[in-house]
Amino acid sequence: MRIAMVSPYDLSVPGGVQGQVSGLSEALRDLGHEVVVVAPGKGAVGDGGRTVLVGRAVGLRANGSVAPVSISPGAAARAARVVRRPGIDVVHLHEPLAPVLNYGCLLAARQPIVGTFHRNGSSVLYRVLGPLARWAVGRLAVRCAVSESARDNAASSLGGDYEVLFNGIDVERFATDAPTPTTAPTVLFVGRHEPRKGLAVLLEAFESLRRPAVLWVAGEGPATAELRRRHPASARLQWLGAISEDQKVARMAGADVFCAPSLGGESFGMVLLEAMAAGCALVASDIDGYRAASGGHALLVAPGDSAALASGLDRALSDAAAGRGLASTEALAAARRHAELWSMSKLAGRYVEIYERVLAGPRGDGPTGGRG
Question: Does the reported pTM lie above 0.70?
């Protein structure tokens, strides 16, 4: 099959949806399918035309974060021209109602359209668009969601049926034999520095931790400067800045504990699965997305509670030092097996089944609309 995979978010900016678009596209190519990725961005991509950048992105506040999307009608028109290319069999839109590339594709596509909903938490956009939003999702042949919470969020505003899949990870990539070396028990945080990610809570919790340990903080964001001012770098606290995917893998493999202290708004705990695949013990907030992803392989604590988080980190570091509990050899192996259930190759296979089903279904002038 030839698939047009559309991301509304700039691929050059790290993010969960962008990672899924890139990883799923590669997994589908490994299965023998042709995929062209359409997304905002600037500059040239030297991949033989497999990625088409259609316009610059701007940052729009959404769901407690800043989304790097294009709001240019010209970019939407260019995306529409790509999906109308001869030979494209299926159009796959991620976050179908995110502005504005997807709207051009929804209007232009004559092939079946598959939509994947990633968002967790209420959406002002769904409410503002109202009937237009319902018309837009009616253009989808199949509506997918990455988790139960993402499904519930979309269904509560838009109605309809959804196939709940998952986010995928490249499991083998995280089984690296080149971990970042450590000199002390180490906790790792990876994420955008914004309030909903809970980094401020983690820093407060770690500051109160009396056990000898080091905290690696990776990533950047609007809160970085203020958090660094309040919590300066030291022998115990290392600010890593933005790191590459390869560096993330090495840091996860080197750390003893991975901490995900998000306050909410996470539809799926992708980063938890990555840490499990890398052999890290987990301490995470007890929120829907993280509870679903961890599958009992993480120590979950109340979100926003620095004392509870400090207690959880102390227990996890103690277990890691003794090789017991969630940090035992057996428990870490079980966590990795759990992560393997969410492999990108399995996710690609599920989507291929959906693509084949919609291609075999009724064909008219446009998408069949709303089957789930």
Answer: yes
